[in-house]
Fold each of these.
Amino acid sequence: MYRTLSILLISLISICTAAQKSTVPVKLATDQSIGSAPSSTEADRPVDTKLSVDQLEKEAAAMYAHHSYSSVARIYEYMISRYGYSDKLYYNLGNAYYKSKNYAPAILNYERALRLNPGDQDARFNLEMCRTRIVDKINPVGVIIFTRWYQSLGNTFDSNTWGIFSIVLFLLFIASLFGFFFAKVTWLKKSSFFVGILSICVSILSLVYSGQQRNSIVYPDKAIVFSSTINVKSSPDQSGTDLFILHEGSKVTVLSSLGTWSEIELEDGSVGWLETKNIQII
Amino acid sequence: MKRCNFAVFYTIRSLDNGYRYKVFLNYMKNKLILVFLWMSICFSSNLFAADAVSFTADAPRTVVIGQNFNLVYSANVETRDLRIAEFNEFDILSGPFTSTMSSSTYVNGQYSSSTTYRFTYVLNAKKIGTFTIPSATAIVKGSRRTSNSLTIKVFPQDKQNRSNNNASSQASRGVGSSSSSSQNISSDQMFIRVVPSKSRVHEQEGLTVTYKVYTRVDIVGFENPKFPEFKGFMAQEVDVPQNQQWNLENYNGNNYRVATLKQTILYPQKSGTLIINKGTFDVTMRVRNQNNNRTKSIFDDFFETYSDVKKTVASNSIKIEVDPLPAGKPKNFCGVAGSLGMTSSITGTNVKANDAVTIRLKISGSGNLKMIPTPNFTFPPDFEVYDPKVNNAFKNTSHGVTGTKTIEYLFIPRYAGTFKIPAVSISYYDLSSRSYKTLTSDSYTLNVAKGSDSGGTVSGNFSDQEQVRMLNSDIRYLKTDIKPHKNLMLIYGQYWFWLCFILPFLFFTIFLIVNRKQVKANADISRVRNRKANKVAVKRLKQAGIFLKAGKKEAFYDEVLKALWGYTSDKLSIPLSRLSKETIESQLDDFQVNQDIKKEYMDILETCEYARFAPGDEGHAMDELYQKTMDVMNKMENTIKK
């Protein structure tokens, strides 16, 4: 009996370590370069490529203080292309675009920052500021308050935090199972029962949230309109009936794509087709 | 009362009009006796009491060479012994003629009178240039007094006259009349000139444009003046005195009488070549009728006829070159080119809350002052700030607009504390140093003490609490420590992530299964033993019965004890190691065994242990004990089973 148990444990541990070795880092599916870089009226100073990340960051902050926002945006874009991304970098880039009054790229970058770190209150605040500046105001269709609670709770943490949270709670659940089955004292038995029920429920919820957040990163389906005005068609060709007009900065959900066309859905439920070049996937 | 007004009155209307003067002289010669007669009357009524004594010299400022003019010394009291200095530039043709003008009024019971004594010389300029007539002295009211000195500009003769060298009486009449016909007045007889003070200026730099009328004929009036629009300029009118004197001016070799029609200060608003267009005027001139058919009569001098002629005259158009202001305009450039100064003052820096405070800003100087904006102080948001009161005291002079702009900022601090009011600054282009200059006011630190509670608060009984006021909204600032990374590690969906759930669960399940099995196994053993307890005990007791019959006392007790201990151990699931009287007693209590049975049981145990090692009568006791044991065990079996 004990022998079989120990064999099982050893084999599991070896699998576990093997799995850890073979973790494949997730690559973001989106193209990092932003199509419509702002046309800068200021003197186009090339980014000094010799600077380190910290120096570039300081340089950008100094430029930001001097109100040369398009230079700031250029530095951050360069950092993304060279050193990779982070939620804070997207946030700062969004700020630079906002200040230079390029609201569509600003919204795109805030959304990207939020996708990586949904709990970022600053990015959420700035995104709301941005949304007041764009043309389209889309009212989401009848979302009941519980759904909103559910969504906003899910946006409190990112995928990894929810995952770790879920594991911890699951371990607590296991511990309370032990307590329930093996405790000799009655109150311990009772409390473990309730703790166990609660922790397994929250653990499952966290797991669901973790999965959702992860899917939004791995399979992004939200996009921002970059063309200043675009007619959304009823079918994926130019001769299709014009259904409605979208303006720069509006957020859409990509349902499917066919050739160079994408089927999009607005938050108010309207569905239509537009050419994929007009939007940028978050 | 009868109003008396005697006056000996003679006048020379146009002193520069030589012709008229000649007429006058002729007249004078005839009337001289009459004049002296009048004078004597005046002396007889010599009743004045002059308070202030004045003794002045007077002559036209500009004359033409060869032209006669009057030099008049006048005093308001009786004057004797007039002595004039020598002057070489002028010939004294005649004089001095002395005359007296006296006037006395009696109005509403107030009697006043004045007398003027005049000494008139007739002079003639000999040379061209600017000359000074030195001051003269005279004994006025008993003491010797000195008059003012005069400066006289002598112009050359008209070109025409010079070339003609015409010594006729017409020519000697000077500029006042000419040989032109009444119907046809050429443009060199009368024209209007626009004279700019500068022809090349900077943007916003003021220049004065003067409309001057040049004339050699008599002008009766101007009608319907159409001044051009000053396109590209900001114009400020300069007040021209209503009653203007004609001044003599030599222009293009001719002497003209000149008057200023209009003077305007212009501030160019854009750079480039700006043109001031022609203006038109309807001029009415009085021209002497010339009757060429008639022979010259002796009365012509006295009975000349004049007629009014109307003519539309256009002024010339001029070009002004305007240079742009140099680059590097400061941000707070106010659009003034000139010279400015700024001072600021405050009514007090140590005040109480709810007391009104005023900052007074004075900007003074010259330039296009209307362009000066009202600078805005940045007051703390808590202050109650009123609209600033602006007072402009500007004066348009021929040199430009000068004056002072006074701005009063009234505000009321509502809360105690120390507040800073930063300075304001404006910039202007300084024309003298050709550079931009910035004027900065003082900045103030205001110490506001708590105001008196009684009358101060506006809100009455309400508490002073208020919501935090949002002044503006802006996005939040940049984040630091941005740490970019190429790859994003997501734990969800990894093998080990799922293993973290599976492993603990597996561990628990296995543990539970193993545990359950063991528990079950243990439970089986005790049950068997429990079931068999009676049997074993009965077996032991049977053996004890055998020993009893054999009379083996020690073995009998030993066997009975074993039977009892073993039974309780099995029945009550007490391991042999923990077996003692105390544990048995407590366990029996747990099983709710009757106290009598328990006592009996414990007695037997004690008896057995005692009797084992005690000698004495055996047979009967052993028999009895045997029976008792059987009895107790039966009872116990029944009780525990329940």
Amino acid sequence: MSLLSNLMASPFGGYARRLLPARINEEFLSEVVLYSMFALVLLLISARLGAAFFNVTNLVSVLQQTPEFALFSLAMGLSMISGGIDLSVIAVADLAGIFAAEIMTAPALQASLGGGGTIALACFVSLAAGTLMGLFNGLVIVRFGIPPLLTTLGTMMLFYGLGSGLTGGVGITGMPAPFVGALSAKIGAVLPVSFCFLLVVFVLVSAYVRSSVFGKSLYLYGENKIAALFTGLRIGRTLLLSYAVCGLLAGTSGLIMLARFNSMKVGFGDTFLLESILVAVLSGMDPYGGRGRLFNVLATVLLLQCVENAFTIEGLSPYAKKMIWGGLLLLFMATNFFFRRIVARGLTAAALRQKMDGDQHGESGKEVRAGGR
Amino acid sequence: MHFARALGPLEMSNLHGGEARAGAPGWRSRLLSALRSGRAGTREYVWLLALLTGVYVLIVAARSPDFLSLASVLDLIRSGAAWTVVALGVLVVMVSGGIDVSFLANAILSAYVATMLSNVLGIDSLAFALAIAIGIGGLVGIVNGLIIYLFSLPTLITTLAMQGVLQGVLMVFLGARPITASHMPVALRNFGTDVLFEVPLGPGFIGLSVFAIPLLIAILLTWYLLNRTAIGRATYAFGSNPTGAIRCAVPLLQVNLLVYSYAGALAGLTGLMTVSDIRLVDPVALVGNELFVLAAVVIGGAKLTGGTGSVAGVLLGMTLITLLNNTLVTLGLSASWNRFFIGGALVLIASISHYRAKMRNLRQLNFENV
């Protein structure tokens, strides 16, 4: 270990450090790892599958399958910034979707509001329900001081149970055609509208979190809770808002899932839970909080979706996929740990050495000047 | 966040103390003030939980009077034994401040390998199957503990990833398919049906399942481990204050290894108990029910932040969960409401216990979980 770290740290110490970017930091490093992995995976896929993967139909279908997964991952990443986690996203999406499905399939509403009105009402109700469920999570976390992990574990059961109690565990099917058709709409016959919508959401959320007071205080809270508390930031409100946004994103995802499957049932999309945690961690969000860029989540989702698509073409079983994801998650977290530790150590040592060198030069310079006078 | 409020309970509890000297307050105000001031310890909490369970039993008994009988107690032990065993393992993990969600994947993997090896080697013995299952469970636990210790990773994400890996190993590398009762070793089938003693009841007999023995052993062992051994106390210490424990030279690696391997070994035992109970080794069964076990442990008073939790609490929590699972139907609600009520109970009880801890910490100017 010490030999390895010495080997890895030495390039940062000597003159080789001049060749590195001036501000090398952990985020930059994990981004380098992420995007080189992206390139490597695409290379591997093209070597193995070639035209079976790289044709327009397949690539468009990759884009089209992305939105709900990407929204879950975005919510997961957002909750990780503050050092929390939101395990209830899937349950929130399912329950919001169930509300929407119940409204859309109610004949009485169809008759009084008309087709378009019912769809609008259903969308509004499910988004509002998602936000409210997120607010509930945030309220419990902020008010009672329960760790987010436990809170969302409990509310996950709560929302799942509410959904299965209301529907009796049976699926609701038969959504109106315009609602289902909206998902497969394309701009210029190629680019899916749903993906454009996703892109807009990503740009908005990540830009807001990156540049607003809300985002800054969220990062600060994730980095050091007690310090954030003592700065007098409105931490309670910030956390509430972040969990509400998680709920809103999950609700949106529920609507998209409803349109995709043309039906809704509790337990839909359960596999997304592990995958969205994987995406959030792979994209460099620190589960302990305070680090990571939300926009990288989108790149990671696309990467994973490509791999998943390639797996499907290869004909792997879902359990094999789950195993690969789990193994990948462990591997990535372990390498990340090493990178962080080694880079941090190397940089600290280098900075110290430089500082000491500088001090010596400075002092000797003073002496020379003093002597000269 | 709540500086102003932090001072509130301090004065409130002083006020309550003053009242207590003036005139003896009833148990209700004592309980309320204890809850509010965060003075109530684990013991009071366990009593509160017992009270809650008792009230629920009375409600159910009011609906169906024959619920209050020896038969339901025996049935409760039988249906709750396997889950309680694994819950005790999870308790130890939670006391150390971690969480384990890989235990059921571990359980079914261990049980599957034990059954398969018994069949392949032609060894029809319960002791052999138990040794294999517990051994494999413990090994998986050691891997968990090592990964978490070496890379200092968040326990939830590590064990969640481990769950996927274990399921994948079982389904892909072992090519698992369900083993039906006729292909299971006789010793295992008997393990599921044997009884210690029988009492006549109605037309037939009802007995105390042999599961009571592993249950009792697990209870005593966990209690002894947590309360009477140095490493058990170190686990509590590490859970309640990691930095302090490290500075007191608590053997971190040993604690990690012990905690996760113990949970893994108990998971292996649970796996074997479950498959002999339902007489089917289904590789995709079990996984997905982790939440019930976690809920039972948390309802029993364990905190995710570690350092609290007791064996008695877990037993009561598991009793409450098993009762809810088995008796909601008698209250006129379909089984699909199970998760709603268990989730609600979980959030409610966790709110109470964490709110108390928060207030206590605030009064000591400790801002850990604000």
